[in-house]
Specification:
This protein is of the alpha/beta class. Helix content is 52%, strand content 14%. Bound molecules: NADP nicotinamide-adenine-dinucleotide phosphate (NAP).
Length: 287
């Protein structure tokens, strides 16, 4: 099987790269800061000095970094950006949760190099990566999406092709619009129950058994009740996704009062110094 360039080895990317290597894929990896590459080199990954160098060695180039700005640096930095190294016929895969506007801009840049872009953000957090249970949400050319599915099979329980370029990220933003609102709401509901004398852990388990509570909301509720500190999906990342979801809606004249309220909760948490903490830490805003 051909080589995959893997750019961005944060909480998600480092685990995804490891899983791909363990699934028999050949990887060349790059990360802005050097710390995460050592463990992957030990597993057999080649380490590139720049995104461009990594892309030059691969037929499929994956990026999973923080946001639009980070992705722009990785792909389009004039000297070292991955786009400069894309082979004609290669598939570029943007797996970061980013905006449809950025996907449109990147798609044009990738096309200018004779390659094809697939937007392929993921649903599922760190345990889902480790179990190979992500859901990959793809937009773009169907034949290129098939190549993504084959190359990245060890990562996911499902690959969903949602249509034209940008549809994968738009759908992902819709998911996190729902998730962000539910997590913010769970924090205030648990605070209310605790104030009325409920044991929080028992209350979460009781809520989890009722159909009105989603599995994701129950999972975050459990993390809140346990006071879990370990970061899986950070407050600032959730705020970014809500911001992007609201902007995508606003561009089409869609009101989002609940999304705005949820964003306000995550922004307050960030201002309180919890930006890098797990999203469940919004519970700390309440008594
Ligand atoms: N965590 C989750 O549960 C989850 C689930 C689904 C989707 N996502 C999405 O996946 C993406 C990555 O999330 P994560 O949890 O892995 O985040 P993370 O742990 O904070 O990692 C962020 C990555 O982006 C890199 N980066 C940031 N700014 C950069 C820049 N200017 N230039 C180059 N690289 C830059 C970081 O490099 P350094 O190591 O040098 O800082 C790191 O590799 C985000 O878009 C997030 O919304 C996350």
């Amino acid at each position: 099987m051909s080589t995959i360039a893997f750019l961005g080895l944060g909480a998600m990317g480092s685990r995804m790269a490891r899983r791909l290597i363990e699934g028999g894929r050949t990887l060349v990896v790059w990360n802005r800061s050097p710390q995460p590459v050592a463990g992957l080199a030990e597993l057999g990954a080649r380490v590139a000095a720049s995104p461009r160098e990594a892309a030059e060695a691969a037929d499929l180039v994956v990026s999973i970094v923080t946001d639009d700005e980070a992705a722009r640096t990785v792909w389009l930095e004039p000297q070292a950006g991955a786009a400069q190294g894309l082979r004609a016929g290669a598939v570029a895969v943007e797996m970061s949760t980013v905006t449809p506007a950025w996907i449109a801009e990147l798609g044009a840049a990738v096309k200018a190099h004779g390659a094809t872009l697939v937007d392929a953000p993921v649903a599922g957090s760190l345990p889902a990566v480790e179990a190979g249970q992500l859901l990959v949400l793809m937009g773009g050319d169907a034949a290129a999406a098939e190549k993504v599915k084959e190359a990245l099979a060890p990562l996911a329980a499902g690959f969903r092709h949602l249509g034209r370029s940008g549809r994968g990220v738009r759908f992902k933003l819709a998911l996190n619009h729902l998730l962000g609102a539910q997590v913010a709401l769970m924090a205030e509901v648990l605070s209310g129950l605790a104030a009325d004398g409920f044991d929080e852990k028992a209350a979460v388990e009781a809520l989890a058994g009722v159909p009105v509570v989603s599995p994701a909301a129950a999972n975050y509720g459990r993390q809140m009740a346990a006071g879990q500190g370990e970061r899986q999906f950070g407050v600032d990342l959730m705020a970014k996704d809500l911001r992007y979801a609201l902007a995508a809606g606003a561009a089409k004249g869609v009101e989002a009062p609940i999304g705005r309220a949820a964003l306000g909760v995550f922004e307050r948490a960030s201002q309180a110094g919890l930006g890098e903490a797990n999203a469940s830490s919004v519970r700390k805003l309440y008594p």
